[in-house]
Amino acid sequence: MIEPVLNPRHNYLRYLTASKAFFVSFLMTLFLLSLPAMGQDLILKGRVVDPEGRTLPNASIQLLSHNRILAKTTSGSNGQFLMKVESAGEFVLKVEADGFRQASRSLTLPRTSDSVVEIQMNQLSSHVENVTVTADVNQLDVLAPDPAEKVFVGQDLLDANPGRPGAPVSIPGYPIETASSGIKAPQYFAPGVAGDHGEPIAQYLAVGSDLVPNNLSANAHGNGYSDPNIFIPEVLESVQVDGGAFNVREGNHSVNLAATYGLRSRLDPFITVTGDYRDIDLVAAVSPVPESWMAFEASYGNGFLGRLEHRQQYKLNAERGFHLGQHRLTLFGIGYYGFSYVPGLVPIFPLNSNDANFRNYGDTIDPRQKDQTHTALVALNDIWRFSGSQQLQLSGFFRTYNLSLFSDFGQGLIRQSEFRTVAGGSANYLNKLAEYFSLLAGFDYEREAPRRDDLDHYGFFNPAQPSYYGPFSPVDGNNVTIGSLTPYIAAEGALAHHFRYYLGWRRDEIDFDNDDLLHSQNSFQKWVGVNSPKATLSFLPKESWYVPLISLSFGQAFFTEDPRIGTGNTAGTPVATSHSYQMVASKTLNKTDFRLTLGHVTSSAELAKIDPDTGLQFNEGPSRLRFLTVAVRQSFRYGSFLATFSKADARDLNTGDPTPEAPRTIFDLLGTIQKLPFRLQARGEFEYVGTKPLGTGCLPILTNECTGTPVKEFRGAMVRPLSNGHMNVGVNFLIASGYTGQTTENFYPSAIQEVVGVRIPSYASVTFTYRFGRSAAP
């Protein structure tokens, strides 16, 4: 529900007062419904140590019975922990600690006395972590209620596009599209979702326990922007994908999907060189003190298209951890600069090579296209643990971002530019009061301030003067501020013996301030309030039962629209809302995991998304998306196998037309092998994205749906450890057919639409890595 607010202060006080009774009733109801029978608890005491016998603080410990979590705690500063157990029996103790492999121990707890156990962790080898794990629904908690897919990545075999800048990690089942092999940010696509740089798909960076948002709202491109380019691939340990609509911590942009990048807690010093005859990439990392690292990447190249890119990128990622009593502080920073001449969208199907309006442009219709960005980010997180069951999280971040882009989509060269600052902070309190009730309460604050958010237009390209721009005509120019203050609350726990629940609610108070620098009459300021309830109910059967684990979820979500009016005549929709439903079923048979996901998302109508050629707004929706995803995973001793298949249908509810550019069919096959003959290690991924509907207006029948071409990609990497694990040599390759960024454009002076895209080239690169210090061999 969206509520325009005329007096934000009075309205905010009114909503807080009206909500007090709801919260009291909500908490009391949960307590009364879930009170357990009283009994004598057993005590399980233990200690967590490293391979040398030194104590490990802040290790995460879980006690399970039949895959059901009975208790959770965290080891103290001396590595010791204590758990209360309701009854004797057979249990499994799972322990996780940063930089170490997960440890599991089977336990038998007697009725007559308390028990003591010591868990010794083994060091995590960088060469055997390249596995993909699909989380089961019994791993839910109040911080992550949605059954998620987590991809763990190894340091040597993780590039989504080996040897090329772009998406640092390939997420199985979520194809990556880029407008070039240069620095322009890639987009992840969910089944049936066509996002303008992924505005319905939120991205986060996990700094400590905080989720730092990576989405940039109301970008000069249009509606939103997420840029994973800023990450150095080697510093990432995992990326987790979940239904962001079902988690109170994931708000703006989390309509269909949320992807969270996890960082490594430790990084052994190394240097890696990747290159071929047109590109070279250098990555180096150091670890000056324990629990800290710094990584640097520099790349230069021309890609594999005919248009030379002269691309250059420079990245700095660094992290430092501190232990101060009960506090665990994490400081993380990013510096990024990139520049490139960008290939352009060109016709995929030239109808008649003799027609000047439909000629084949090669790799670009305009060689003057270029792109420059820079980013700086610093984030600090403090986890204050009061005990093994409760903690307070405090965090803050500050970011700057700059864009200067020259593009030609067939109607002449456009120039887009902006400089923005983003600041934010969050605080939340977590208390696991009992197995049947965990409480999370907190708030987020964020302020984005794009300045000189400009769109300018130039005439048409003159091949006789390829370097001459001439005068640009201003189309749109704005100073925009989007500020939000968001309280949220959630509860999670066990209901009866085989059920778990999650209930949450967040309230976003969003302030839009649009200062139009060209047309002052288009300036405005508006407050909008958004309520987002969340709920998940999970059924956890015994392992011996033939029925699957099932999770049912509901959530309301939203994303902020582009507030600029542009060349239109009315203010657009400030916030687009959606209702999401999901069912996940999971079952393990003969050590093979099967997973089925069904989703249904309805979104409101919207007037937003500035057209880059004209400055006009798009009028879209309301829309409906249905999708089905099947995943099969098999992990074995020296590798893993994962297959996913998705089918989706997305339509405009008013017209019944398919949503343009939304992928209908996605098939992904991923395999890793860590132990081949001659000590080779390999990873391969095949991805197929079926034909997308792209709108209407193409010949021969203008009212029929325009369609593109299927995309097939096979990415692979193979490495060979040398010198007792200190060195690795290998090869990365991509074998591809099809076009990325498929859409429709009309080329002046024709009004007929054409299907356009950027050709995906095949290539191979050689890589060399040297690791310093002690042997890294498994």
Kindly describe this structure.
The chain has a 22-stranded antiparallel β-barrel. Helix content is 3%, strand content 55%.
Enumerate how many helices there are, as a single number: 1
Cα Rg: 26 Å
- Poorly predicted regions are 3-39, 125-136
- What gross morphology would you assign? globular
What is the tally of beta strands?
Answer: 47
**Largest sheet entry:** 22 strands, antiparallel, barrel
- Ends apart, CA distance between termini: 54 Å
Structural class: mainly beta
The percent of residues in helical segments reads under 10%
The portion of residues forming beta strands comes to over 45%
Q: Average pLDDT, to the nearest integer?
A: 83
